[in-house]
Amino acid sequence: MSTPNQIDDFFTAKSKREKQSASQKTKKQGLGWLRQSWPSRAQLHQLPRVLNKTERRIALGLIFIFAIAVIYIPISLYANGTTAAPDFGGSYSEGIIGEPRFINPLLAQANDADRDLTTIIFSGLLKYNPQGELVPDLADNFKISGDGLTYTFTLKPAQWHDGQALTAGDVVFTIQTAQNPDYNSSQQINWQGVKASAPDDRTVIFTLKNIYAQFLNNLTLGIIPKHLWGDVPANAFSLSELNLQPIGSGPYVFEKLKKDNQGRVKSLKLKSFENYYEGRPFIDNLEFVFFASEDAMLQGYKQGGVDGLSLISSKNLKNFSLSNRLNVQSVQIPRYFGIFLNQNNNPVLDDKNIRLALNYATDREALVTEVLNGSGTVVHSPVLPDILHIGEVTTKYKFDLEFANQILDNGNWPRDERGIRTRNNRELNLSITTSDWPELVAVAQIIEQQWEKIGASIDIIVLPIGEIQQRIRRRDYESLLFGEILSPNPDPFSFWHSSQKTDPGLNLALYDNNSADNLLEDARQTINPIERAQKYDDFQKILLEDAPAIFLYSPDYLYAPSKKVKGLEIRLVSIPSDRFDSINTWYVKTKRVSKEG
After folding, report:
1. In principle, which of 211, 252, 544, 582 could form an S-S bond with 395, CB 3.0–4.6 Å?
2. Architecture of domain 91-331+557-589 in this structure
């Protein structure tokens, strides 16, 4: 028999079941109504016929807006919550004028192709950042003694591309090789009076005999591996296959090169160094393609052979229809071009009146306007005021044909029946030797026309850059139209001191003046920058009075990399190859990363 409580539970449960059944029935009726209310597929097909033209447009617009919203909302959330970041992968190719001969930091002085590749493959203790400031490279840190004579460097853990550990012994070996005259390195002058020692594998100590204010500039020199070069004798140093199959410690590893039937290097490939001490570079593969001239390089670019150009002249920049694929940059660089007069090879240049007249007969402004299209500045001295921050030079040989002719008239250089000036049966004849770089050829031709107006007979000798380098080594020219590259903290010693008149020195005018020598020596040992600048100012006054050269202009460096390359920021470089000092941070691939991360 059921109790009252059991009866209550029964009716309570029954009531709940009835309510649930009623609720489910209502839901089914509602869903049924919705299904009955929603148009069938057949009805949807008939919808365009039911709606008028305006209603159809409104309906389509609403459908389009709905579809866009469905697509855009997740994309917008992803884009707003993430940001583009460098990623690994990709490749980049660049055209270079010339070809590599010595991919070796101790031999790559006068060849742009060599210097470019050396910068990428080798590392120095220091390097320049995009603002032209010296920063640590292989060096982890360094300190300078109070007397300015001892520099102590601690190295980062680093490897050579063949897996061997880079040690302080490699640094000492590199410096001692540079100092040895048997190796004929152009770096020799920078390391005179310097002792390098390695108390342990991570420490290098440089001890100087005399204070050298610009010593840190020298520490950008690439370090070469002792375990590979140590057994190469001096007489085979420039002949070693390592000069074209280099092993360094920089961000990229030599992979292979291609030569043509004549044995000329046509291209060279590099790959990223995974064990690079600053981390694996972003771009996986680099290729450099070498051309005999700028015109050939531009043609190669038009045919898709390269992504970017190592440089472009202002003339071609104006005339060449550049595609949107190039990011042309005008980079400040401390260099100048001039005509260096070799008095040893042409006796007429012994006459100071001739040198003065040639200076006054040179219209430098015309060169900047006609050849550089305004992309450069006139210079009157090898001491660039924007670099050394000294006062503007007081001695300027401003263009004055009348005065130039007057100097020659007063110097007993009359014109003959042809209009050529002669004295003691010797003609005022002078050859100008320069490279086949179109810009320099154009400058030589304009100067020829200018100097002919004062009765000079001019011959122009145009040679490939390789032959020019050989002529420079032998000082085999009467006058040389060429450029000299300084540094952000320059030392004119190697360009103008009398001890540098022969190879590997770079005194191209064979200039010799005791007073100038003393000032250059003293400036090197003057730490105070204001006092040092004053000595350089005094030096330039003496040099300009002697007129051993005709200083012309300082051109802008026009670099044209591909727009696909990101992370490239260059404002000031010491030499064009320094554009690669931060190449490990360049990238062509990106990935999305969380902004919070």
Report:
1. 544
2. 3-Layer(aba) Sandwich (3.40)
| Residue in the block written with tokens 């900047």 | 368
Residue from 339, 332, 330, 340 nearest 387 by CA: 332
DSSP states of 133-149 as a string? -EEESSEEEEEE-TTS-
pLDDT one-digit tens code per residue, 447-498? 999 999 999 999 999 999 889 989 999 999 999 999 998 877 788 998 999 9
Q: Which of 350, 358, 341 is nearest to 454 (CA)?
A: 358
CB 563 within 8 A of CB 324: yes
- Inter-axis angle of helices 529-546 and 514-524, to 10 degrees? 160
Q: Please, which residues have CB within 8 angstroms of residue 181's CB and are 6 or more apart in sequence?
A: 188
Distance CA 497, CA 518 (A): 9
Sign of CA dihedral 21, 25, 26, 30: positive
Distance CA 168, CA 389 (A): 36
Helix (H) or strand (E) holding 88: none
CB atoms within 10 A of CB 430: 20
Task: Give the dihedral of Cα atoms 84, 88, 94, 99; nearest 10 deg.
Answer: 150
What are the φ and ψ backbone dihedral angles of 470, each rounded to 5 degrees? -70, -40
E-strand stretches of 510-559: 549-555, 557-559
Could you report the per-residue pLDDT of 372-395, keeping only the tens digit for each? 988 889 999 998 876 666 766 777
Strands 335-341 and 549-555: antiparallel
The model's pLDDT over 537-593, given as tens digits with 9 standing for 90+, comes to: 999 999 999 999 999 999 988 999 999 999 988 878 888 899 999 999 999 999 988
Residue of 583, 556, 572 lying closest to 311 (CA atoms): 556
Question: Of all helices (H) and strands (E), which one includes residue 286?
Answer: strand 285-291
Q: Does domain 335-555 have CATH number 3.10.105.10?
A: yes
Taking the model in full, what pTM does it have?
Answer: 0.74
Q: Which residues are registered as beta bridge partners of 258?
A: 267
Show the CA angle centred on residue 196, arms to residues 194 and 200, nearest 5°.
Answer: 160
Of 174, 159, 249, residue with least CA distance to 206: 174
SS3 591: strand
Beta bridge partners of 322: none
The angle at the Cα of 355, spanning 353 to 361, to the nearest 5 degrees, equals 100
